[in-house]
Structure formats: C-alpha cells, structure tokens
Amino acid sequence: MKKISHYLLKYWYAYVFALICMVISIYLDTLSPQVTKGVIDNVIIGEEISLLPKLLLLVFIIGLGRCIFGYLKELIFDLVSSKIAVDLRKNLFTHIQNLSLSFFHKNNTGELMSRVKDDVDKIWAATGFISMLIIEAAVHTCFVLYNMYRISPALTIIPLIFMPLVAILAIVMERKLGPIYEEISEENATLNRVAQENLSGVRAVKAFAREKFEIKKFLSHNKRYYDLNMKQSKMFVRYYPYFQFVTRALPLMVIVLGGMQVIRGKITLGSLGAFTEYSNNIIWPMEMLGWLSNGFASAIASYKKIKTIYANKPEIEEIESPTILEDVKGNIEFDHVSFSLDDKKILNDISFTLPAGKTIGIMGATGTGKTSIINLLQRFYDTTAGEIRLDKVNIKKLSLNQLRSSVSVVMQDVFLFSDTINENVKMGKKHSISQGDVMDAVVKAQARDFIERMDKQYETIIGERGVGLSGGQKQRISIARALAKKTPILVLDDSTSALDMETEHLIQKELSQIEATKIIIAHRISAVKNADEIIILEDGSIVERGTHDTLMDAKGYYYKTYMAQYGNYLNEINDTKSNQFND
C-alpha cells in the first residue's frame, strides 16, 4: 500500500502554493489589530482625524486580500484532497479487484463497500480541510503570539499558560476517542453488510416472511451504531466545557491585567485593544483543537482499516514473463489434478484430455467438485497437485488475461448488471463485439422473442442482478453473453436448469453447431448425452467415464440418473407398444 505521504508528495507544488496563500491570509489577518491600535491611539485619543480614511482604506485592502488568498487556500486544499481521495479509492478498488476469489469468500461485500466509500471519505477530510485547519491554527498561533510579544512580553505569558492546558485536554480526549472511532468504523461496516445482504436478498426475505426478523436484526446494529456515536458525543461534550472555560477566561484575564498596565502607563489603550483582539483571535485554534484531533483520530482509524485490506495479497499471480499463445485452439488437459480448500479435499486425482472442438460432460451430485474444475481452469484457484494445460502449456505459465479471455462461462448463479440488455450481452466490450454479434448470440440463446417484446428492446435497462426478469430469461441472456464473446472454450455450468425442455433442446441444437471446446456441467442427462465423453464425479473423484451408450451399459450412477429422469416416460412408451402388440 502506498503511504499517505506518497499522495501528499505527488501534489507538493499545490500544497506549497496553498501554504503561501495561507501565510499571506494569516499575515493580513494579524494586521487588523494593528489598525485597531492606530484608530484608538491616533484617531480617538490623538484626534488625528485625517488618518481615519487611510486606516479605513487599509481595513478594506486587508479584508479584500484575506478574501482572495483565503479563497485560493481553501480551493487548492479542496482540489488536492479530492484528487488524493480519487487516487486512493481507485488504487484500493484496483487492489480489491486483483485479489483472489478466496478473499471474497472471507470478506463481506458490505464491509468492503464501507472501506471503499466511508473510510476513504474520512481520509479525504483529513488531507483536506482538517489538515488545512491544523496547519492554519499552528501558523496563526505563531503569528499572533509574535505580535502579542511585540506589544507586551508580560501579557504574552497569559496565553502561553492557557495553551498547554488546552493541548493536554485535546491529547487526553483524542486518546479516549481513538478506540471509539475504531468501533464506529467496524459497526458502520457491519451495518452496511446487513443492509446490503437484505436488499440483495429481498426476495428470499419476503418468501420466508422474515421481514420482522430482518428489521429487528438491522435495528439492533443500528442501535449499536447509535450508541457508539452517542458515546463519542458524550466524550466530546464531557471535555468541551473545559475548552470553553479556558478560551473564555483568556480574554478576561488579558483585559484585567492589561488594564492595570494601561493605568500604570506601561502600554497604551490602543495596544490593549490590539492585544485583546489578538487574544480573541487565538481562541479559535484552541476551540478547534479538540474537534480537529477528533477528525484526525477518525481518519487514522479508517487508514488502519484500509491497511488491513492491503495486507491481503493475491494468491493467484502470473509469472513475470508469461507465455503468450499466438492462437488459442482450446486443447485442455487435466493431469492428475487434486485440489484442497481450507484443509478440505475438493478434487482428487482428476485426469482427462479434451481435444479442441470436442465436448465433455460432467455430472455428479451437488458438492462433488464439478464447479471447482471450472474455477481451476480459469485459475481462480491453483491446483494442490497435478497440472492443467491449455494447448500443451501449463496454465500457470500463461497470462491470466489471455487464459480467462479465452473462456466464456455461463455460470450457474447468473449475474446481470444494472444496465441495458445490450450492454449485459457485450459485457463492456463495445468495440470488439458488434451489434450483429449480439443479435446472432441472442437468436442462438432463444432470447430474441422476449427481448423484442419489451418496450425498449435491447436498450431496456434491467434491474440489479436481473430483477424484473424470470430465471429462464436471465439464463438465456447469460448464454447470449457467452456466445457473443466467441472464445475457443465455452463452459456451461448447469446453464439451462431454469429452462423448459423445448427451449433447452433448441439451445442445445444451436450449441452443437458452435465450433468450440465445450465443457458442460449439468444434472440433466439431456444436456450431456451427446458429449464426446462424460465423466461422473463422486466425492471429488471420477467414478465413471465414457459415452452415453457405454455408461448406460455400465448401469452405474449415470444409468440410475437416466432412469430417474426418463423412467416414467420409457414405461409409458413400453406400455403403449405392448397395448398395440396385444391389439
């Protein structure tokens, strides 16, 4: 992870200019009490009325200068902090995107959203107006103390006594608030997670009538978040009266002790007026100190959370100089492949060869490792043992981009983006996939009829995850997306489970004419019966393999599945034939 100093140094020139503007603005601000001194001593007491227009003009020039340089200072700090936030959020999001699939199995989407949005926002504030005000308070205090010392070294002792008291209070408060901010950050992430899960799974919530339970769960986290924020507020309120007491006592002490010096003739009345004005000017940095330390502590807590994400490294990385295949043909070899995840054996000694253009069917009960084969082929995970080769090259030696872009997958859990149907089919590849390719893929996926019945047809915006479409419609758009990509390898992971038999038959007829290496994972016999080879998985191992005919003759798992799916139909045919024969 790049340190915050990296982002600050990237825009050092802007910060330098902003600091120059800040110093000029503060310098002009500290001139105002000197004008007040001149008005009291020279105009009011000295009765030099001719000086008044000049002093008033000076007040106008000082005010105008403060406006100009103050505006430039704030504008630059805002612009630079915004750019830092954009860079930080971009780098964080890119890092998350590059992490392996196992990271997302262990971390919730809502929590990651909180890191990308809320925590970056707090750092944005810290590199912007919070840091600006901290620097401004420090520079302003130095200028004011210098001018105070010039007027009366004796009176300057008063703010020098009060300031350490305020600093100690601020440090104590910051240490008390630091752990609270970390808890608030964690609970904010949890609250986001609960909200995200419920909104994404709203259909399941309503289907199981869990509204009251889910509302109760959300309210419990909302109450916890409220309690932590109240705890923070109570801590702040507990210490804030001390800040107010100190800052109110300072000008009072100045007026009392300064008045005594005026009476003794050690300083003029105008000097006391200027000093009192300076003492009022030095109050705001003291009052802001607690709030600024507050915001800074919150940003530090958020920075720690982001660092924990950067501590995760991708488990799947390509080698420095990967092999680039000139033309991916689609020959796939699994050579004694085994795979374990979290000390659990998923696949054991899987071997098969799939020549380019051929089809393999994979069947087995749920949890036997069928989808894991696809995950390994795309290098979402790496094999525990054995090798996977594409066109006789170990996939670990290939570029991840070339490997994954050579495979089109129709996933079992269809995910569609909140975008037009057209964009969902193109999947962001506007320039490489033509509208003709989209139309051709939609026709083959048997999706044209229902799409063209919609008001805006291909420009219809579908809801999040395909809300508004039936399961079969989502599957057909997902199939069209894979076909439009025109890759040498096509993977269908139980991709027709939501379709009726007739539509499935039409799609399979279209798929059989596509020249690509096909891997078909299915529970239906109809999806794999025409494959060049069918393998049956059980407990992560291949227990049966062969063609449809040879597996039927073996009368094992495949035969039993076939009879379970078609037994009644076959019995009806046999009964019909028997009746015809008897007649």
Could you describe the 3D structure shown?
Helices cover 66% and strands 10% of the residues. The longest helix is centred in the middle third of the chain and has 53 residues, at 211-263. The model has no long low-confidence stretch (mean pLDDT 79). It is elongated and about 120 Å long. With 583 residues, it is of the alpha/beta class. The protein has helices spanning 4-10, 12-45, 51-98, 101-106, 109-151, 153-200, 202-207, 211-263, 269-281, 283-310, 370-377, 400-405, 421-426, 435-444, 448-452, 471-485, 501-512, 525-528, 548-554, 557-582, and strands at 332-341, 344-354, 359-364, 385-390, 393-394, 407-410, 489-493, 517-521, 533-538, 541-546. The chain is built from 20 helices and 10 strands. It has 2 domains: 4-310, ABC transporter type 1, transmembrane domain (ABC transporter transmembrane region fold); 332-554, P-loop containing nucleotide triphosphate hydrolases (Rossmann fold), CATH 3.40.50.300.
